[in-house]
Design a protein that fits this description.
The complex is a heterodimer. By secondary structure, chain A is α+β, with helices and mostly antiparallel strands. The relative contact order of chain A is 0.13. In chain A, strands 3-2-6-4-5 form a 5-stranded mixed β-sheet, sandwiched between helices. The longest helix of chain A is centred in the last third of the chain and has 15 residues. Chain A has 2 domains: 77 residues, Beta-grasp domain (Ubiquitin-like (UB roll)), CATH 3.10.20; 63 residues, Orthogonal Bundle (DNA polymerase, domain 1). Chain B is an alpha+beta fold. Chain B has 3 domains: 218 residues, Aldehyde Oxidoreductase, domain 4 (2-Layer Sandwich), CATH 3.30.365; 150 residues, Aldehyde Oxidoreductase, domain 4 (2-Layer Sandwich); 296 residues, 2-Layer Sandwich (Aldehyde Oxidoreductase, domain 4). Chain B contains 20 helices and 28 strands. A 7-stranded mixed β-sheet of chain B has the order 11-12-9-19-16-17-18, with helices on both faces. A 5-stranded mixed β-sheet of chain B has the order 1-5-4-3-2, with helices on both faces. In chain B, strand 6 and strand 7 form a beta hairpin. Chain B is globular, with a radius of gyration of 27 Å. The chains are: A alpha+beta, B alpha+beta. Chains A and B meet through strand 1, helix 1, helix 2, helix 3 and helix 4 of A and helix 10, strand 13, helix 15 and helix 19 of B. Strand 1 of chain A pairs antiparallel with strand 13 of chain B.
């Protein structure tokens, strides 16, 4: 007996790769972390792969490819965006911020990044770029997010199970909880 | 203080391998153990005092100008920097920081000048300590094993080509038996060197912050100044270790070294690695495990811009392109035909049915226990309580999909990626490519999760990347899609069990666990209760899937079986589940104390709102006892709502309580996720699920907002911390839902596939 893809697989693949008929590379200009860039890419290439492979900004991660896990989260014109599922052609003329663009020019961490360090949030760390980008967007939108708003907004997957510390870090970053008690005993 | 988990971008030059006077095959563990009886009485703790060829090689691999290697596993530079080489990978469980704390504390090193690097994936750095400790644990004769000459252990380990991270072993074995001893021995050598240089006795000297001080004269010498001389000295094989009250770093909440690079995007994982001229490839393996690639027309993929090559493997097709997107589009354009390897009838219901049939046939492959269960059941007549449990295949779902970069050049195969055993990875890749292991170089990278998925025994990507690299002239990074990841896992096996017991005068008189799965789990079933007659019978059943270790391994399902069933027995006896467990644990035992503490913290017995229940469970695994209480209710849509979780842990002592808490809390969440929603199911031999849309992982909103973790400090041997948080949570949740609803949960996950 032999057969081709099982039906489910075929459907999943087709959903992900809608043929656009536009195979020619086009030049697309936008800004990333405040710098103007222009890339040559096929119009349907997801922003994620342009960031990772063309611009070598690998802090934005590939997790699922279907906007289900949030590991690829960035900001596009200030809006939280799952970059694996946005064609780069949609980004033309827009401003993208990635995890690499959160720090101040002098290297000072963004308050949310600092809260992540203080609460010792990351374990494997792979999802944390996306988690931080989601948290920054949430705080920019709400100021001081409630527990319910955190529940609603923080839908990114973390397999290590860092959720309680993510919540704690968001509350601490917005002055709603005592700073995490991660002591600096023995730290340099 | 800096962590450098990946010092090997400039990869280690291949030095000649040490001669191993042991034949490459045939050094089986039992032969070794049989021979070991002759060596009793050696009385030497020689663990890291490895034989000279390995030490020479370690020195070649790790030391530059002004640096001095000690006992293979550490070096001191003349600027006082101390570098530890970890044989274990850190994928977020905090191992590197913990091992650094243990070494630096005994060494009295200045923590700001301590670095932890991944040990080279070289046989000189195989983890002898791990093997020695495991041998001791498994045979029950640690005295015998500890008496072995170090050189013999070193040779044995290298012949097995392992450098494992797993079994919650790093801190309790490598750290306790290795890094602390090394630190203390090197400190003693530095003191001896200083005494000679200053012309005073060793007793007049003190050490702190990488400095030896002679208080009487006010003179001092830095470790960097003493290292060259100390490295020439013979080191104590039995140095005095600090007592608990002397610890400055051990058992302290030191912040993790790897975290800064994980909040700003600068950490480089295997999937992020890149080389000039590198291509990216992606793969589709036979949908039915065991199937082969029958045919594929390459043309549709080759028509996709950016696609450069289609590579056919025995059981898979790979598309190579200039980037991932092009490769993925090329792959999607193909219509490969695969055989099903004769496994086309395999399905989830068929597996359960076959398991039931096998168990009912009553011919166990393995059995263990004590007392006479059969007689007790016979005497009880109709009063034997039974319950059948079923647990599904579980996917590891590490957030970083598999990615391995390979370059075949000048007869050598170079590999870059994150795997749980770098030396084992070289071995597997060498076998796949038909090469000698010495011609395969592996560069360990940071891993985006592992949970048991990244052991060489279950990482077929090593074969795929090795075979692919031999067919292309450029470096190539093979990346699995999430669909490939979900559908070709090496899952926690789908398993089932019938538990039966009888009660007499309010106590359990006899208990039997008839379980069906691939492996004999004796040694991991962890039955802790005082019951006069117990029986564990294993019925071996395998599917077409490759069974993989999933965080906490067999303790996941057996923790669920045992701790759900004892809850049922408590209910049958009309007793409180906490008190019923308590009275079956030895009075004054560590287990009883852990159980009491968790009940106290959780307010066991206090009133709860309508519709909310409390569940309790206790499991010992990997040398650590964990009891958990979960409060849960049911949401409007019928799915469980976990409100809060408590854990009390006795792992002897924690090296880093801050990190240990994260490991226990993370383990609970992983377990809740699996219990509530995760299942891999088979239909027509192939995996049905495809991505995070139908493989349901717990999200933040459904995780308990707070997990209250407490540690009991005891002088018991140090237990593991990465895995033991997982096993109790399944049963604690199921028991809580029973308390809330009166309905028992015996089949996982709680949410059916229909809901997915």
């Amino acid at each position: 007996m032999s057969f081709s893809w099982p039906r489910g697989h075929r459907v999943a693949m087709n959903n992900r790769f809608k043929p656009t008929g536009e195979f020619a590379s086009v030049a697309i200009a936008f800004s990333v972390n405040g710098k103007q860039v222009s890339v040559e890419a096929e119009a349907d290439t997801p922003l994620l792969w342009v960031l990772r492979e063309d611009l070598e900004l690998t802090g934005t991660k590939f997790g699922c490819g279907i906007a289900a896990c949030g590991a690829c989260s960035v900001h596009v014109d200030g809006q939280l965006t799952r970059s694996c599922s946005v064609p780069v052609s949609d980004i033309a003329g827009k401003a993208v911020t990635t995890i690499e663009g959160l720090k101040a020019e002098d290297g000072t961490l963004h308050a949310v990044q600092q809260a992540w360090v203080d609460a010792q949030v990351p374990q494997c760390g792979y999802c944390q770029s996306g988690q931080i980008m989601a948290a920054v967007a949430l705080i920019e939108r709400t100021g001081t997010p409630s527990d319910a708003q955190i529940d609603e907004a923080m839908t990114n997957i973390c397999r290590c199970g860092t959720y309680p510390r993510i919540r704690q870090a968001i509350l601490a970053a917005t002055g709603q909880a005592a700073k995490a008690s991660a002591t600096t005993q023995g730290e340099a | 203080m800096a962590d450098n988990p990946n010092p090997n971008i400039e990869e280690i030059k291949a030095a000649p391998a040490p001669e191993t006077p042991v034949k490459k095959k045939g050094v089986k563990r039992r032969i070794f153990l049989a021979g070991s009886a002759l060596l009793v009485g050696g009385g030497v703790f020689g663990l890291y005092w490895s034989d000279n060829s390995a030490r020479t090689r370690a020195r070649q691999l790790t030391t530059g100008e002004g640096e001095h290697n000690f006992l293979t596993w550490m070096k001191i530079a003349e600027d006082d920097t101390v570098t530890l080489f970890s044989p274990h990978i850190d994928f977020g469980q905090g191992t590197h920081t913990a091992l650094g704390q243990m070494l630096a504390d005994e060494l009295d090193a200045d923590w700001s000048k301590v670095k932890v690097e991944q040990a080279p994936s070289d046989v000189a750095f195989s983890n002898t300590a791990l093997v020695q400790s495991f041998l001791g644990e498994m045979t029950g004769y640690p005295g015998v094993i500890n008496a072995l000459p170090a050189a013999l252990i070193g040779m044995l380990t290298r012949s097995q080509k392992i450098q494992i991270t797993g079994g919650s072993s790093a801190v309790r074995f490598t750290g306790q038996g290795g890094m602390r001893v090394i630190g203390a021995a090197v400190r003693a050598a530095l003191v001896a060197e200083a005494a000679d240089r200053l012309g005073v006795s060793e007793g007049e000297l003190t050490t702190a912050d990488s400095t030896v001080t002679h208080a009487a004269s006010g003179r001092s010498l830095r470790y960097g100044e003493l290292a060259a001389g100390a490295a020439e000295r013979s080191l104590s094989r039995d140095p005095v270790l600090k007592t608990r009250s002397q610890w400055k770093l051990i058992n302290k909440p030191v912040t993790r070294l790897d975290i800064p690079a994980k909040v700003d995007g600068s950490a480089v994982y295997g999937i992020d690695f890149t080389l000039p001229d590198m291509r990216v490839a992606t793969i589709a393996a036979a949908p039915v495990r065991g199937g082969k690639l029958e045919s594929v027309d390459e043309a549709p993929a080759m028509a996709v811009p950016g696609v450069e090559k289609v590579v056919k493997l025995d059981d898979a097709v790979i598309v190579v392109a200039k980037g991932y997107w092009q490769a993925a589009k090329g792959l999607a354009a193909l219509s490969p035909r695969f055989t099903d390897g004769g496994n086309g009838a395999m399905s989830t219901p068929a597996i359960y049915a076959a398991q039931d049939k096998l168990r009912e046939a009553g011919k166990p492959d393995n059995q263990a226990g004590e007392g006479d269960v059969d007689s007790a059941f016979k005497a009880a007549g109709d009063n034997v309580i039974t319950a059948d449990f079923r647990v599904p295949f579980l996917h590891h779902a590490m957030m970083e999909p598999f990615a391995l970069t390979a370059h075949f050049k000048d007869g050598k195969l170079h590999l870059w990626g994150g795997l749980q055993d770098p030396i084992g990875a070289r071995d597997r890749a060498a076998k796949a490519a038909g090469m000698d292991i010495d011609d395969v170089l592996f560069n360990p990278m940071i891993m985006g999760g592992g949970f048991g998925r990244r052991f060489p025994g279950v990482t077929e990507i090593l074969d795929q990347a090795a075979l692919l690299a031999k067919q292309v002239p450029y470096p190539v990074k093979l990346v699995w899609s999430r669909e490939e990841e979900v559908r070709h896992g090496t899952y926690r096996p789908q398993s089932s069990a019938r538990l039966s017991a009888t009660l007499k005068d309010g106590r359990i008189a006899a208990w039997r666990n008839d379980y069906v799965q691939g492996d004999n789990a004796e040694g991991e079933v962890g039955f802790i209760y005082d019951v006069p007659a117990t029986s564990r019978r294993h019925f071996a059943y395998t599917t077409n899937q490759i069974d993989g270790p999933w965080r906490s391994v067999n303790s996941t399902q057996h923790g669920f079986y045992n701790e759900s069933f004892i809850d049922e027995l408590a209910h049958a006896a009309g007793e409180d589940p906490y008190q019923f467990r308590r009275k079956h644990l030895p009075e004054g035992s560590r287990h009883q104390k852990v159980l009491d503490e968790v009940a106290k913290h959780a307010g066991w017995g206090t009133p709860l709102p309508e519709g909310v229940g409390r569940g309790i469970a206790i499991v010992e695994s990997f040398g650590t006892i964990v009891a958990e209480v979960i409060e849960a209710g049911v949401k409007e849509d019928g799915s469980p709502k976990v409100l809060k979780a408590w854990a009390v842990v006795d792992c002897g002592t924690t090296v880093n309580p801050l990190n240990a808490e994260a490991q226990i809390a993370g383990g609970i969440i992983m377990s809740l996720s699996a219990t509530i929603g995760e299942a891999i199911t088979l239909a027509n031999g192939a995996v049905v699920e495809s991505n995070f849309t139908d493989y349901n992982l717990l999200r933040l909103a459904d995780a308990p907002p707070v997990i209250d973790v407490h540690f009991i400090e005891s002088d018991a041997p140090m237990g593991g911390i990465g895995e033991p948080g997982v096993p109790p949570a399944s049963a604690a949740l199921a028991n809580a839902l029973f308390a809330a609803t009166g309905k028992r949960i015996r089949t996982l996950p709680i949410l059916t596939q229909a809901k997915a």
